[in-house]
Amino acid sequence: MLRTHTVGLLSSLLVMLVLVSACSSNSSSASTPAPTVTDTLGTQFAASCSSSMCTLTVQDPIIKPLSCDSAYGSDAFVMLWSRVLTIHVLNIPTAGGPAQVNVGEPGHPVACTTNDQCSPWDATIGSIKYQFVCQNGICQDPNKVLTTSDVVTLCQANILWPSTCPYITSQPFANRLAEIAQGCDALSGQCVSVPADCWQPTPTVDGGAAAVDSGAAGIDSGAIGVDSGL
After folding, report:
1. Are strands 54-58 and 44-49 parallel, antiparallel or unpaired?
2. Number of domains in the chain
3. Does a structural domain hold residue 222?
4. Which of 39, 118, 135, 168 has the CB geometry, 3.0–4.6 Å to 104, for a possible disulfide?
């Protein structure tokens, strides 16, 4: 049953995140973005935005964008707008057409210490207005509903950027997807809770955000553990 629920969750997220990506690609009205953003591992990215997409160039040469999703294009770090402002790895098709984002691709929240680091990313995308503030160390719009895609991002906050594939079966990501499936509805895309070992959207009694792995340069060692239950 857990496997079925998790597969249903992933199928739902594929559609939902494509919509987020499509909205982001139309974000020509976004305010002048900050020149750099930082993820929850302390990795810095330089931003370059056009009328179609905001791409991010990682400042650490060791870290490479690796979507583990498709071999039909080139991988890039991009910005996605949701309740949680997200740095995401996207496979961009070389033959054109829309890029598709799914939960199996790596993504981290944008980290912050002040609202000024989040507000440049305020945008009106379609009919949805985003106003980001710094809350519990990450940029988010607290007026938006916390969706499953946001929870998946929060649960990757202290996971190193991958260097090998497949990513979706690596640990601890695979276990966290199983945990997410227990607290989120695959049909509505809404969640009642964020797993305790993930970054929390609001402060908790024990201090708030999940502990961040301080591994070298924010990239994993390439060792992959497979969860036989996923």
Report:
1. antiparallel
2. 1
3. no
4. 168
